[in-house]
Amino acid sequence: MPAVEIRKLELFYSTFHALKNVNMSIEPNRITSMIGPSGCGKSTLLRCLNRMNDNIEGVKISGEIIIENINILRNTEGVDIDALRRKVGMVFQRPNPFPLTVFENVAFGLRIHKMAKGSVLAGIVEESLKGVLLWEDLKDKLDLSALSLSLEQKQRLCIARLLSVRPDIILLDEPCSALDPIATTRIEELMIELKKKYTIVIVTHNMQQAARVSDDTGFMLLGDLVEFGKTSQIFTSPKMKQTEDYVTGRFG
Amino acid sequence: MNRHFDDELGELKERLLYMASLVESMINYSIKSLVDRKEELVQETYKHESEVNKIQVEIDDRCIKLIALHQPAAADLRLITSAMKINAELERMGDQAVNIAESSVKLLKQPPLKPLIDTPRMAEIVKKMVKDSLDCFVKKDLELAKSVLRTDDEVDDLKDQIFRELLTYMSSDPANISRALELILISRHLERIGDHATNIAEDVIFLVAGTDVRHHLNELEEKK
Fold first, then answer.
1. Tens of pLDDT along chain B (224 residues)?
2. DSSP-assigned letters across all residues of B11-51
């Protein structure tokens, strides 16, 4: 069963038609990447998956996004938005740790949702930091301000913050854009480790990154999902000419 | 830092070496069937052929995907392009082994023309070239690769020697012609296997040293 099933998804920002009849399935424990030129709708699509677009004035969405047999686009009485955003967490382009200690950053979600306290909470913090390979570096510095970490560590910490509240799906919107090449490689390796336990969806401008890390790739253009398939097929024998033009750098 | 890409490169090498082991078996059985006069050994040669062909397609597919998805550079790129070439050479070696087996079948239907001395000797040298060419790939051993290149002359000389000897058999009695021709063909197939091993050694030199020595090994010696 797919982790996410998207059917006939349409989105308008006021009169601007940003997503046009998008249909796709995101499979569990795989990395799905969305590629396409700026303004194609890939970040808009990503934000639909945990209803972050609800916060944008004038947005109108129709269609279905099925997660665990529930259409999350039903009106808010039917869907617990907080629970959705715990289950479908998001990491942004610019690492955004809270101005708190390392420990408190990871514990924050657990405290807010009253999911754990005391030693159980501490155990989850440790497990989450281990999950992003930060524990060994920071186990003796949990009281350090998160703002003093390197960019790469900050991004890992943001992912750990998600992991602590037990997500099923992790959304990453250009997670490496602010990082240097070595840090980028490390975060990419982390994503490949994380997919063993989580479903990952990544939006990236960097086609080569999509090629390196993802199992499945969707190419979007002007709000349309032009092609969706296995990454190996998209980058060796794409079916659509527009996809071929984009991945070979002949687009535009 | 170990990357998952390194694991994929490791898998590529393993598949190539597995293919090489099949091809070495094919060569072994094809010659053994002739020397020991056991037609059943020919079947062992044929048995591996379709698997070798399948693996060839699989390895090329892996290499194309690795290039498309990982944009390899430097030694990684040379490894993948060398693997594609070595893949083709191994498959051709397998074809030559099948050709030897087919000649062997024809020869086994008739009494032996003469005691086989040079042919098995040539086969042993060629088999060692094949083994050494794959060993130098695994160990990235430049000296071993160069020794494979030098051995090719010995194989060519033996082929000529076999031809000259069989020519006298053919001249002395026309009834000898068909068997002598099959033996000449077998020596040609063995010589071609040696050439493929030489090509693999050249690919390994490119992989390790980044130098293309095809057609000019001497230049590599001079550069050193």
1. 668 899 999 999 999 999 999 999 999 999 999 999 999 999 989 999 999 999 999 999 999 999 999 989 888 998 999 999 999 999 999 999 999 999 999 999 999 999 999 999 999 999 999 999 999 998 999 999 999 999 999 999 999 999 999 999 999 999 999 999 999 999 999 999 999 999 999 999 988 888 787 776 655 555 55
2. HHHHHHHHHHHHHHHHHHHHHHHHHTT-THHHHHHHHHHHH
* Distance (Å) from the alpha carbon of A15 to chain B's nearest alpha carbon: 38
pTM metric for this prediction: 0.81
Contact of B27 with B134, CB cutoff 8 Å:
no
Beta strands, E only, chain A: 4-13, 16-26, 31-35, 59-67, 70-71, 88-91, 169-173, 199-203, 216-221, 224-230
Find the residue in A nearest to B64 (Cα).
A236
Question: What tokens were used for A205?
Answer: 């401008």
Q: How far apart are CA B186 and CA A29, in angstroms?
A: 54
Q: How far is Cα A191 from Cα A240, in angstroms, rounded to an integer?
A: 28
Q: Is A189 on the interface with B (CB under 8 A)?
A: yes
Could you report the per-residue pLDDT of A182-227, keeping only the tens digit for each? Answer: 999 999 999 999 999 999 999 999 999 999 999 999 999 999 999 9
The answer to whether A180 faces chain B, any CB pair under 8 Å, is: no
CA–CA min distance B3, chain A (Å): 7
**Does CATH place domain B4-223 in 1.20.58.220?**
yes
Q: Cα Rg for chain A, rounded, in angstroms? A: 18
Residue of A189, A192, A212 lying closest to B69 (CB–CB): A212
CATH topology of domain A4-247: Rossmann fold (3.40.50)
How is chain A split into domains, by residue range? 4-247
Q: What angle do CA A247, A249, B3 make, to 5 degrees?
A: 55
Amino acid identity at A26 = I
Query: What is the number of other CB atoms lying within 10 angstroms of the CB of residue A220?
Result: 26
Structure tokens at A7: 């059917």
Q: For chain A, what's the residue count? A: 252
Element (H, E) at A145: none
Instruction: Say if the Cβ atoms of B65 and A236 lie within 8 Å.
Output: yes
- What string of H, E and C letters represents the secondary structure of A193-223? HHCCCCEEEEECCCHHHHHHHCCEEEEEECC
Chain A residues inside the 8 Å CB shell of B65? 232, 236
Nearest C-alpha of chain B: how many angstroms from A196? 13
